[in-house]
Design goal:
Chains A, B: Belongs to the zinc-containing alcohol dehydrogenase family. 2 copies of one chain form a homodimer. By secondary structure, chain A is of the alpha/beta class. Chain A is built from 12 helices and 19 strands. In chain A, the strands form 4 sheets. In chain A, strands 3, 5, 6, 9, 10, 18 and 19 form a 7-stranded mixed β-sheet that branches. In chain A, helix 7 links the parallel strand 12 and strand 13.
């Protein structure tokens, strides 16, 4: 089969690889219907994370089950399934607490920008749709594998409640879907930080009421200004840099929470400073699996359309262009069709 | 009047000072019935915080109102009152959100280890008891001015819920009262980290079910061991050092919260490490004012007896011995009688 491999920063290739096969009896093999490029893939592509050997890329996927191991009980060949980037047994104490991405048996799923994929812990990881979905729903279902679930978790972790003022730091796909999540949670005012017209437009469509173009300390000052000097009730940090985290904390009112879902790079928090802000922090790799049943239902009913974040659709063999377009911010998010 | 002044680390003196007087019309003057030495006073006493000039000490107090300014409407001379170490207007957005210690008009109260005290923003800061309390209730009422409210906030910030397993880092008065709070909140199992027999005994009396004597990484490992490898649902960090904070985070299960109320000294958090723990953080200077009405009620009804943390009672002129005894850990907490 063909699959995507990164060799070095900027060097992503589609190449012939061995077909994935069942390794342990809890695995499943799925034929990928659609995959995509994640903002976190760009950490490698841009050389922020070191690339020391060729690595199969991709961790967002929807597809049709081809084969399951002998211990797989609920997932069946022929089903259309969605899974998270962390495989999880969905039965351990961390899973039962809703933190499947901290499952005691978790495994990172990798190599999804390909024609086929091995998914570990298939019963715990995958959720099947009732029927094969209409093709036009596939982009939205694909987002549930990571970005929509991650934006949703940001809003959960920030404890967004009806009537609140929410600020979103980051106008990538996760930030935009954080806007959508905050809107579904009943936020009255949603301030998105964005300088990009197409992203501002989609943010507005998803429920943003205010746009702030300033960044860093100026951005935080602008949010304070928009909130009577107090700060937003909840802030979604969807970037992961030292600057974005500082901005998120500085934009939050005392007693409010920052839900942070951008993988932190170089973020150091001064305990004493944080203490006197009274700002709470909660985040981490989103437990996407927790939200799959609810979000699949919302997509199938047409209540949410997170698939709009894909403003570029490419055949899998143009995967390198997908990375380039996202890295150059020409595209919000690239969908790949095997 | 006589009041306590720190001149240098280890050098605390009771001396004659000017009587406090009304400065602005929202002030009140109270005659101190009892004051005490706070664990945070020891940061100065031990030279961890620099002492660059003589500073009046003490921020925990109960007393009888002597005089109020012309703008004070609800607090009256003759009332027995309790207030927080942060004066607050109790009307600004932060106060209304329950974070009075981030009041937009907040002022630190200082100089309470004395015979009399000026309390700013009297209407917002002070809460009066219905009647003059029985003398035996005064120690418990005094704890509401800081330590009991702070332990209570630690449990609130850690989101302690009925049936949970809670760990408490720190066996000072705040940690012990954090145990009491967790117990009142319905925690099923309360693990306290302590090596001191008298403190262990009081912790047990307040509801601790397990005692861990290991510290740091070993302490966290022990908590993991006691919780099936997962960690406590909620952890109360009541110390404020880099080691205690690291231990608290490492003792918490994914999705659990650390409620941190020890003023952080040298605490630096690595964003990426925190991210992958899935541990939430919330804390800060306790908004004691929020809890005063409820806690006064519990003390007056005899439902809680936080005053037991005072295992040393001294006349005010022996204030220096109070500091020494606490610094040498001969006493949990020293009550001072003017």
């Amino acid at each position: 089969m063909r699959g995507t491999v990164i060799y070095a920063p900027g060097d992503v290739r589609l190449e012939d690889r061995a077909d994935p096969r069942l390794i342990v009896p809890t695995d499943a093999i799925i034929r990928i219907s659609a995959a995509c490029v994640c903002g976190s893939d760009l950490w490698d592509y841009r050389g922020v994370n070191p690339v020391t050997r060729p690595v199969p890329m991709g961790h967002e996927y929807v597809g049709v089950v081809e084969e399951v191991g002998s211990d797989v009980a609920t997932i069946k060949p022929g089903q259309f399934v969605i899974g998270s980037f962390f495989a999880s047994d969905n039965t351990c104490p961390n899973c039962r607490a809703g933190y499947q991405s901290s499952c005691v048996h978790r495994e990172l799923v990798g190599g999804a920008q390909a024609e086929a994929l091995r998914v570990p812990l298939a019963d715990g990881t995958l959720v099947a749709t009732p029927d094969l979905p209409a093709p036009e729903l596939i982009p939205s279902l694909l987002t549930l594998s990571d970005v929509m679930g991650t934006g949703w978790f940001a809003a959960v972790a920030a404890q967004v409640k009806p009537g609140q003022t929410v600020a979103v730091v980051g106008d990538g796909a996760v930030g935009l879907l954080g806007v959508l999540a905050a809107s579904r949670f009943g936020a009255e005012r949603i301030i998105v930080m964005s300088r990009h017209e197409t992203r501002q437009k989609l943010a507005t469509e998803y429920g943003a009421t205010d746009i702030v173009t300033e960044r860093g300390d100026e951005g935080a000052a602008r949010i304070k200004e928009l909130t009577g000097g107090i700060g937003a009730d909840a802030v979604l940090e969807c970037v992961g840099t030292a600057e974005s985290m500082r901005q998120a904390v500085a934009s939050t009112r005392p007693g409010g929470y920052v839900g942070y879902v951008g993988v932190p790079h170089g973020v150091r928090l001064n305990g004493e400073e944080l203490f006197f802000t009274h700002v709470g922090l909660h985040g981490g790799p989103a437990p996407v699996r927790r939200f799959l049943p609810e979000l699949i239902d919302l997509v199938l009913k047409g209540d949410i359309n997170p698939g709009k974040v894909f403003d570029l659709t490419l055949p899998l063999d143009q995967v390198a262009e997908g990375y380039r377009a996202m890295s150059e911010r020409r595209a919000i998010k690239a969908l790949l069709q095997p």
